[in-house]
Design brief:
The complex is a heterodimer of chains A (333) and B (245).
Chain A: H1 2-9, E1 12-23, E2 26-37, E3 41-45, H2 52-60, E4 67-72, E5 75-76, E6 88-91, H3 103-113, H4 118-131, H5 147-158, E7 165-169, H6 177-192, E8 196-201, H7 204-210, E9 213-218, E10 221-227, H8 228-233, E11 239-246, H9 252-259, E12 264-269, E13 272-277, H10 283-292, E14 296-303, H11 307-315, H12 324-331
Parallel strand pairs in A: 3-8, 3-9, 6-7, 7-8
Antiparallel strand pairs in A: 1-2, 1-4, 4-5, 9-10, 11-13, 11-14, 12-13
Helix pairs in contact in A: 3-4, 3-5
Chain B: H1 2-19, H2 22-43, H3 50-79, H4 82-87, H5 93-122, H6 130-152, H7 158-175, H8 190-195, H9 197-209, H10 217-243
Helix pairs in contact in B: 1-5, 2-3, 2-5, 3-5, 3-6, 3-7, 3-9, 5-6, 6-7, 6-9, 6-10, 9-10
Chain lengths: 333, 245
């Protein structure tokens, strides 16, 4: 009997098998398969245009897959996209509430879409406004909210009906630090309360902090799927060094590669270089070589491997491809 | 029950957010007054001509009011993605679109009130069969709204909705029997006139107001109902194929 309970605990709530989606000649999602367990916070990570949002739109019933199967809580959503919509909450990548309605009215309206009676939806809306720190703005029109407030209210609207599964598409993109932090706290709290969360983001630190398991998607294909601990363990034997310097030549990584063939080099941005090796890295010769190339080294420090490093390793693409422009705008932490 | 809570609230939200806004209320008043005055002055045949003008003026007021508003509001919501929120709601698509069109149908009926009030004030309308007249107005509002829906789900930009609306509306003005009786249209144009739902709406109203309908009542009713159902079905099909693609 115990084993049955245990099995149901880890049973997949979302099962995706061989999912395909094309837009004209572009393959957006190319035969992906994965499972999300009940109560899990599952991260779906990839660079901009990797297929994250397309996958979510298919999972929530806003798009039909060209091939493959989606099962949510045992309901076949590839045949009937609306089959599981009563179980799910969706927070899209753009805040899409009604600008002409107040925050309170928006939440009440969203609750009504799920058939909640008036008394219940009013109390739930008030509860969520308080939870998200928006009670002061409850009667203000949504159109006048700041980006962070809009994002919070959009998340509140996504959970107004207490869904079993919450789909969060880039929840902290483009908002200020304190709002992003508050939203991450809310996500963690929802997860603790048992909500299954499917999170897409290109902020790897955020995913590392929040998620239990992660799938990396690149060009429509899942390149790696595992628990965060297992993903990080793949780099346990790696030595990482981050060097900060000004005026680094564009081809510095290439020059270093020629002179230090046992080390790997990657430019993080114009002022940062990452060095990785399976052996202990000697800092002195590296710094001297870099300064000989005309750069001014200000710092060299050993760093612990992060999900970013895992991603770079498994996806084989640079961090600049992860949408760092957006990260600077809103994902600073 | 849950689906009906959603239905009712979608309709109420649209009424408050779009249709009951002061500019739209004034549109619902000024536009019919303009139509009525224009036709009355143009006809130049005194107050006795009002009952003859009334069916056309009512039909046009309803047609323009509903198609303008619905095609723009739906396209606008689709554009800013708030329509996705409705598509994510666990209610059947047909019921959702009926809710979405409910406010527009009411707005259409409201558009008919002003010409009727003016006519009541200026002419003798004692012979009007009000039951059939009101039912006809409702049917014209429904079929015009579904035409607006069909337009909204066929385009992606708000300005396209307006352009596409005119593509349907202006031929209707000339072919529905408002300016020239359908029977006197050239043979080549007659089939087009009988393809337009407004032709039957105007004929229904003519029957109710002047007792001068050219087609049997049952034929008008069947034709307008079939037109409405076809437009609604085509719109749902478009949503299925284009918006949940």
């Amino acid at each position: 009997m115990k084993s049955t309970d245990a099995d149901s605990d880890i049973a997949a709530l979302i099962e995706v098998a061989g999912l395909h989606k094309r837009f004209g000649s572009v393959t957006a999602v190319d035969g992906i398969s994965f499972n999300v367990r009940r109560g899990e916070l599952f991260g779906f990570l990839g660079p901009n245009g990797a297929g994250k949002t397309t996958t979510i739109t298919m999972l929530v019933g806003l798009a039909r897959p060209d091939a493959g199967r989606i099962t949510i809580a045992g309901l076949d959503c590839s045949v009937d996209p609306k089959a599981a919509q009563h179980l799910i909450g969706v927070v899209p990548d753009e805040s899409n509430l009604y600008s002409e309605l107040s925050g309170f009215d928006n939440l009440c309206f969203c609750a009504a879409l799920y058939g909640m009676p008036k008394k219940e939806r009013c109390s739930r809306a008030a509860e969520l406004l308080k939870l998200f720190g928006l009670q002061e703005a409850a009667d203000r029109k949504f159109g006048g909210y700041s980006k962070g407030m809009k994002r919070k209210l959009t998340i509140a609207a996504g959970i107004i009906h207490k869904p079993q599964i919450l789909f969060l598409d880039e929840p902290t993109t483009g908002i200020d630090i304190s709002s992003a932090r508050h939203i991450r706290q809310m996500i963690a709290r929802l997860h603790t309360n048992g909500t299954t969360i499917f999170l897409t983001t290109h902020y790897l630190e955020e995913a590392e902090r929040l998620c239990e398991r992660i799938a990396f998607i690149v060009k429509g294909r899942i390149v790696r799927e595992d628990s965060v601990a297992n993903l990080l363990a793949t780099l346990d034997d790696h030595q990482l060094l981050r060097i900060s310097a000004a005026q680094m030549p564009e081809n510095l990584a290439e020059l270093l590669g020629n002179s230090f063939p046992d080390l790997s080099f990657q430019m993080i941005d114009n002022n940062q270089l990452q060095v990785s090796s399976l052996e202990l890295i000697g800092v002195g010769p590296l710094v001297r070589f870099i300064e000989e190339q005309g750069a001014l080294v200000s710092e060299a420090r050993r760093i612990m491997p992060s999900l970013e490093d895992v991603f770079v390793k498994v996806a084989g693409i640079g961090l600049t491809d992860m949408g760092r422009d957006k990260e600077k705008a809103g994902g600073d932490r | 029950m849950k689906a009906w809570i959603a239905f009712w609230n979608i309709m109420l939200k649209d009424l408050w957010a779009y249709y009951l806004k002061p500019p739209n209320i004034s549109w619902g008043i000024i536009f019919p007054i303009a139509w009525t005055s224009m036709f009355f002055i143009k006809s130049g045949s005194g107050l006795g001509s009002i009952p003859g003008l009334l069916p056309g003026v009512i039909a046009l007021s309803v047609l323009f009011g509903t198609t303008s508003m619905l095609s723009v509001t739906v396209t606008f919501e689709k554009k800013n993605r708030s329509f996705e929120r409705l598509l994510l709601a666990p209610i059947p698509l047909g019921l959702l679109m009926l809710a979405k069109t409910g406010g527009s149908i009411m707005f259409g009926v409201f558009n008919a009130i002003m010409p009727i009030l003016l006519a009541l004030f200026l002419a003798d309308l004692r012979d009007v069969d009000w039951l059939i007249a009101l039912f006809s107005i409702f049917l014209i509002a429904v079929v015009s709204t579904f035409l607006g829906l069909f337009i909204a789900v066929s385009v992606s930009e708000v300005f396209e909705a307006q352009t596409f609306s005119n593509f349907f509306r202006f031929p209707m003005i000339f072919l529905c029997g408002l300016f020239f009786p359908v029977e006197s249209l050239p043979l080549l144009l007659k089939p087009f006139a009988y393809l337009l739902p407004l032709t039957y709406g105007v004929d229904l109203l003519r029957g109710a107001i002047e007792r001068k309908n050219s087609l049997p009542l049952w034929l008008d009713l069947i034709a307008i109902c079939i037109s409405g159902m076809l437009l609604f079905y085509a719109s749902l099909r478009n949503i299925h194929h284009k918006w949940i693609a």
